[in-house]
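CORE FACILITY INTAKE
Project code: CF-77B
Contact: R.S. (postdoc)
Sample description: multi-component assembly, two entities in total
Requested service: structural model of the whole complex
Turnaround: standard
Below are the sequence entries exactly as provided by the requester. Do not edit them.
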Amino acid sequence: MPGTARQLLLGFLVFITIGAGPALAGGELHLGNGAEPESLDIHLSSGVAEANIQRDLFEGLIAEGPDASLIPGAAESWDISPDGTVYTFHLREDGRWSNGDPVTAHDFVYAFHRGLDPATAGSYAFILYPVKNAEAVVNDEMTALGNLGIKALDDHTLEITLNAPTAYFLDMLTHHMAYPLHRPSLEEHGSAWTRAGNLVGNGAFTLAEWVPQSHIKLVPNPHFHDAENVALDEVWYYPTEDEGQELQRYRADELDVSYDIPADQIEWIVENLNDEYRNFPYLGVYYYGLNTTAAPFADNVPLRQALSLAINREILTQRITRAGEIPAYSFVPPGVAFYQQQTMDFEAWDQSARNDAARALYAEAGYGEDNPLEIEILYNTSDNHKKIAIAIGAMWKQLLGVEVTLRNEEWKVYLASRDEKAYQVVRSGWIGDYNDANTFLDLFLSDAGTMNSTGYSNPAYDALLESAAMETNMVARQAMLEEAERIFLADAPVIPIYFYTTQHMIKPWVHGWVDNIKDVHPSRFLSVSEH
Amino acid sequence: MFSYAARRLASAVPTILVVITIAFFMIRLAPGGPFDQERQVPPEVAANLERAYHLDEPLTAQFVRYLGNVLTGEFGPSFRYRDFSVSELLADGFPISMQLGVSAMILAIVIGFSAGSLAALRRNTASDMAVMGVAMTGIAVPNFVVAPIMTLVLGVWFALLPVGGWGGINHAILPVLALALPQIATIARLTRGSMLEVLRADFIRTARAKGLSEYATVTGHAMRAAALPVLSYLGPATAGIITGSVVIEQIFGIPGIGRYFVQGALNRDYTLVMGVVIFYAVLIILLNLIVDLLYPLFDPRVRHD
């Protein structure tokens, strides 16, 4: 269509819809954000979409830089006691809430108390468990919150006492559960405190508009301590549940950054929009859990190893998932802080050597042509999960003669089956809560309850993780965690398949975006040029 | 007519009670709960969540509590969208779904009825075949195929209309079209069928015999009678279309209530599912009543005295 005609028509549409849509001009960033937020309340939300917005609205003691590295946030500096259990934070004097009130140590004490209070019912309360007595508060065993390990020594000095030296504690403080809260606005507005107009935050932006299922609009917080370096005038977050449509909105310039990409259009994207396509390793692993509490996997390590060896992960990632996923030969992803990736020995072998080993172990486990293993794979409804399950089933069948059946369940039914261990092999995924190997390894402690969905139990593994939790020497701690993972991989209660990558489309006029393993991109570091 | 409407409304109360009861226990029978996630929470955290939402009480006690709340007009907080109450979500979303739905319905009635009448009057001609061919395609090709194609062509390639979002008339054009297409097709088929039947009726022969022009016969007599089956269809169809379409809303990023039907159930958002079910039941009952009240205007044999 000729340019002028298009402009005329556009002009007409703008004319008949004055004040309707957002104008796409410099200084505004429009982000696809996956799902409609569950809540903007820092203690009630649990997802990535919510965390992205909360990161703009609030600032914890520690903040994240453009590359997700830890930088001073509400705290200017901090001291750590020699035994690693007492942290003293010195808050910046110029910290202000979006209504101009000073940010004080009391705001953090109030927020921690609220987050752990059983009446708040925060689903992520457990992330604060390293804080002394936090677990007792959640358990309602401690009604006097005064014993909780967080104290305001004065308006600008905050002391946090931990149960044990926790190497990842500073990283953990970037979690939304550790943000401060403005007590007067919560007390004034009650459960409506997160609405636009009511919400008072201490982040780089404030909430201007929230239309559920449509958009959330943020504008800069003039009281933010680094406000002069915030470039954007407006940040818009859109729920984008359908990746295909998200891509179309991106192509129509309605979005500057996409939350995800449609897996079935990856080839088209690489061919046509490769410069705008970002694919980066993520802090997450896709794996099959094996139920080690029941036959056939209970006490049968050779069988578990055989099934792991028989999966050709390169074929899965190159032919089936096709979105740059990294074949996984360990459980902890590459690139985790203070950790050297541990991999299963057979990573270096070619697939035919793996196949030989798989056949030998399968026979050792007591199975063969006359006595084939019959196994069921449980997965939740999704094309991707289904394709992978079919491919893995075929690999097991072809190489070992395993009789595989697939069981597909709707999401919530699947979760219930998994948690009741009503499965043999279960499709699983895990995204780390913080950048440390512990968030991957502590899932499989014997006493981790339903979180340990495989029922794995090994006293040597438990002992290593417990010692690591008490260790203040980072080198010694790292060695313990690495040894624990080696034991875990040898026992093979899970079959790691691939490491997730994050995928975004980013317009060339968006600046300041740095790919990182946490996929964290605070809007205060982003800018948009004329386009 | 007034007493007829009052009787109908009174008889709707037990119907709605039955709907509430069945829906309440059915959603609770489904495995899994509102707070189950990929990331399992420690048991004490799960217990706190259940207590906060009274899920730790016996089911019958929860039911009595819920009924009490509904009677006072309170549908409770959403379990999934925790910053909003179910009433707020419905109040925010329904006007948008209704605008979309009513526009689509008007479009569908005007085009569908005209096209169907035309096809019947030109029976077995090329125009009949064309209209019915398009109608069959409209019924057969689902929304989730048509809508992305329309956005690709008009939104991405030609950049004439926004691909998604909600704000003004230009945001409404594509979703209204996508929503109306299958309705146009259905109404056209219904109209054609009933029109063919009516054209063979005695009173049409009488009209023609007394020398009325073909135009007057069709517009003055046939159309009114041919509209009856379409009218019966419109009650439930309008209820369905103005309560939103999950497909259309997701594809175009429209903040209506259609997605709450499906998402509410998938998320085990008990209060949202219940709110939507009650809302939908009331709406269907009301629209069916309206259709029945309109019937005498089209068919003099029907009277509500």
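Facility notes:
- Chain B has a mean pLDDT of 89.
- Chain B touches chain A through 60 residues (CB under 8 Å).
Invoice: internal transfer
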